[in-house]
Design a protein that fits this description.
Order of helices and strands: EHEHEHEEHHHH
Number of strands: 5
Strand order of the largest sheet: 1-3-5-4-2
Helix content: 40-55%
Number of helices: 7
Structural class: alpha+beta
Shape: elongated
Distance between the termini: 35 Å
C-alpha cells in the first residue's frame, strides 16, 4: 500500500541528489540506480543541468525570484510503504525502477534511491524536468494522480495491494497527515482515539460533548 508524494525542486537539485544518495540511508549505495545519467550526485547534477539548459534555454543555476513563478528544475517523488507492509528493500527498489520507466518513459533522466534508515522503507526518485529527448514533465494535480495510478499498477504486479483512494470529488489526505496517522502522532487521530474511549460511558452526543470539554477540548 504505497503512498506517493511529489515535490517541485526549483533551486536545490544538487542538495537533493546528495541527500537521496546518502550511503548511510541506502546501505552504502546498494539500493541506488539511475537512468540516462550517472548514479553520483555531482555527475548527475551536471548531466541534468546540461539537458535542462539545452532544451529550456534557461540558466540551471539562476537564483530564485523574490516574486513571480520560479522554473521547476526537477521533480522529487517519494514512494513510501507502511512498516507492516510485506516489502523488502530489494523489492521496493525494483518497484521504484519499474515505476520510473512505466510512468516517465525510457528517455527520462532519473536518480533512484531506496532508503532503509526509517521504520518504513521508501524510495526517492529525482527526475529532470526535461527528458533527454526534450520532453517536458510537469507536476500538478493531474500529473500526480496519473503517477499514483501507475505506482499502484506497478505495485500490483509485484503483489503489493494499492492504497485505497478516496472518491475523486473528496479531499485527499495530505502526506504529513497520513504519516502522522501512521505513527500515531496525528492530532486528528488522537481526538478519534479519545472519542472512542469515551463513547462506551456516555448516553448521547450532549454527554459526549460535556466529557470532551472536561478533558480540555473545545
Amino acid at each position: 500500500m504505497p503512498y506517493l508524494k511529489s515535490i517541485c525542486v526549483h533551486s536545490t537539485v544538487r542538495q537533493c541528489l546528495r541527500y537521496i544518495l546518502n550511503p548511510d540511508k541506502t546501505e552504502d549505495l546498494l539500493f541506488t540506480s539511475s537512468l540516462n545519467c550517472l548514479c553520483d550526485a555531482d555527475e548527475a547534477y551536471l548531466a541534468m543541468k546540461m539537458i535542462y539548459e539545452h532544451y529550456s534555454g534557461k540558466n540551471y543555476e539562476a537564483p530564485m525570484l523574490q516574486a513571480g513563478k520560479n522554473s521547476v528544475k526537477a521533480i522529487h517523488y517519494i514512494q513510501s510503504f507502511k512498516p507492516d507492509e510485506d516489502i523488502t528493500p530489494e523489492k521496493a527498489h525494483q518497484i521504484a525502477k519499474a515505476f520510473a520507466k512505466k510512468t516517465f518513459g525510457d528517455d527520462v533522466q532519473v536518480v533512484i534511491a531506496t532508503h532503509t534508515d526509517k521504520e518504513h522503507i521508501h524510495s526517492h526518485l529525482l527526475i529532470n524536468s526535461y527528458s533527454v529527448t526534450g520532453r517536458k514533465y510537469y507536476s500538478n494535480k493531474k500529473s500526480v494522480e496519473h503517477a499514483r495510478e501507475y505506482s499502484d499498477r506497478v505495485c500490483a504486479v509485484f503483489g503489493i495491494q494499492p492504497i485505497k483512494r478516496k472518491d475523486r470529488h473528496t479531499k485527499n489526505m495530505k502526506y504529513n497527515e497520513w504519516d502522522n496517522k501512521r505513527k500515531g502522532t496525528s492530532w486528528k487521530q488522537q481526538i478519534r482515539s479519545e472519542i472512542d474511549s469515551i463513547i462506551p460511558s456516555v448516553k448521547d452526543i450532549e454527554e459526549l460533548y460535556a466529557e470532551l470539554q472536561k478533558r480540555g477540548y473545545t
